[in-house]
């Protein structure tokens, strides 16, 4: 999503092509005083339903995603254990690959999920959530991967108590959401399901 506007529509220019008065600018026929920065797309006061129950749903979505992430790791560990028995212990040397492979798998999972068409991980989709940028754009791969990285860093360095930040702002954003400029909302509220037409 891009935001652009031209201050000159009639060929006249004022002070270098843009008309400004007291910090306000005219772009696209409308006066704006925000310096060209788009406003927040989701307002917790006019659209409280977008954020209702989001923190609780995020917790359960996180648990679901942990299960999804754990299944391949557990299967890999079982395979290495059996392979080690067959190779008389030589195969157990592969266990050192489990930790870095788990990190790579988690980054790919979060990046591909949030960067996908639903802008949500599997757990978030089950809990009817989606991630958006503060100006309303869907997520992308790098954003999804960084979202996971900053979450684990914030929880590890500042303790899980840092999650209480979500209780003190209207959009229920956590610390890593604020840093990255993201917001998690109720998906079905943003995209209401059309009611089927009545047939008589």
Description:
This protein is mostly helical and 200 residues long. It contains 6 helices and 5 strands. The chain has a 3-stranded antiparallel beta sheet, with no helix packed on it. Helix 1 (54-86) packs antiparallel against helix 2 (98-114) and helix 2 crosses helix 4 (141-158). The chain is elongated. The two termini are 43 Å apart. The model is unreliable at 1-33 and 193-200 (pLDDT under 50).
How much helix is in the residues?
A: 40-55%
Question: What is the overall number of helices?
Answer: 6
Mean pLDDT: 83
Distance between the termini: 43 Å
Return residue spans where pLDDT drops below 50 for at least 5 consecutive residues.
1-33, 193-200
Number of strands: 5
Written as H for each helix and E for each strand, in order along the chain, the element string is EEEHHHEHHEH
Residue fraction in strands: 5-15%
Inertia-based shape: elongated
| Major pleated sheet | 3 strands, antiparallel
Strand order in space, largest sheet = 1-2-3
Q: What structural category arises from helix and sheet content? A: mainly alpha
Tell me the Rg in angstroms.
23 Å
Report a brief summary of the structure:
With 200 residues, this protein is mainly α. The protein is built from six helices and five strands; from the N terminus they run E-E-E-H-H-H-E-H-H-E-H.
Descriptors for this entry?
mainly alpha; disordered N terminus; two-stranded antiparallel sheet; 3-stranded antiparallel sheet; 200 residues
